[in-house]
Amino acid sequence: MPPNGPPGADTADNVTPTRMRDAFVSTASAALDADPRIAVVLADISADRFAAAAARYPERVINVGIREQLMAGVAGGMALAGMRPVVHTIAPFLVERPFEQLKLDLGHQDTGAVLVSVGASYDYAAGGRTHMAPGDVALFDTLPGWTVHVPGHADEVTRLLRTSLAGDDRVYLRLSERGNAAARPAEGGLVVVRSGSARSAGVVVAVGPMLDRALAATDGLDVTVAYTPTVRPFDRAGLNRIVAAAGQADVLLVEPYLEGTSAHEAAVALGDRRHRQRSLGVSRVAEVRGYGSAADHDRAHGLDTEGIAKAARDFFLT
């Protein structure tokens, strides 16, 4: 079976993995060599990948074991001591399990860290619900002061991580096993990837690894397709500008996590004009309790190319 779906899957659904985690490990390891402020805090996940770095810097590469709350607390302490901690594990173990510590040890104390997850919403679906985190980005919306990146390619991971490490703020970098065939600009907000005509039906906003699927799904439709790997802060001014150039002020958001996560951002961005909007993402209506593959879950939530195409036609053409 191909890595991203069953035989016969759409090309955009069956992209060769971009190895985002490899890009993260190599970039973080190089940063450990270059900057004595950088530390990496792990909870067993990816410990083997950081073994060489841990041998060089045992005081700055810390594996706390399967103690995710402790992992977040250690990061908060390191930040208070003037270090720049990088905290890494699977998304549900990084965001959901230690959420109170993220809220208090980082947010309430106003300390900075770079959180890097793998697994996205359901990349590791075979592990069951414990290994899924479609609500992670929505959770960060309850905490002020977080930057959230959702890259669509390994090269974007490298650029976004380097920029994040140079700062002292709170950053969440959400990695996926799947992505787009080519990297896109990682800085500067929304970028137009495909332009519609002056009479276009509206705008599609594709986030991170959803871009190639959104492009394939809307092929033949007169719509503008815009892309961003950064959802917080959301580029409200950019969306307003792109929609102003479209024929219709209709916006379809295609996000790889809980549907509607950025709906309020689009509503605020377009508050000066009458518009319609629809959000695609992991369903809020019913939980998918089967295991299966990531591609199976895409189909169940309408996030494969076919599902996005149907939603786009229904939204823009009716």
UniProtKB/TrEMBL annotation:
Top-level division of the source organism's lineage: Bacteria
Root EC class: transferase
- What EC numbers are recorded for this enzyme? 2.2.1.1
State a single Pfam family of this protein.
Transket_pyr
Q: Which Gene3D superfamilies match?
A: 3.40.50.920, 3.40.50.970
| Keywords associated with the record | Transferase
- What's a Gene Ontology MF term here? transketolase activity
Q: Which SMART domains match?
A: Transket_pyr
Q: Where is the Transketolase-like pyrimidine-binding domain?
A: 18-182
InterPro entries assigned to the protein according to its UniProt record, in alphabetical order = PDH/Transketolase (IPR051157), THDP-binding (IPR029061), Transketo_C/PFOR_II (IPR009014), Transketolase-like_Pyr-bd (IPR005475)
> Which named protein is this?
Transketolase
Report the source organism.
Lipingzhangella halophila
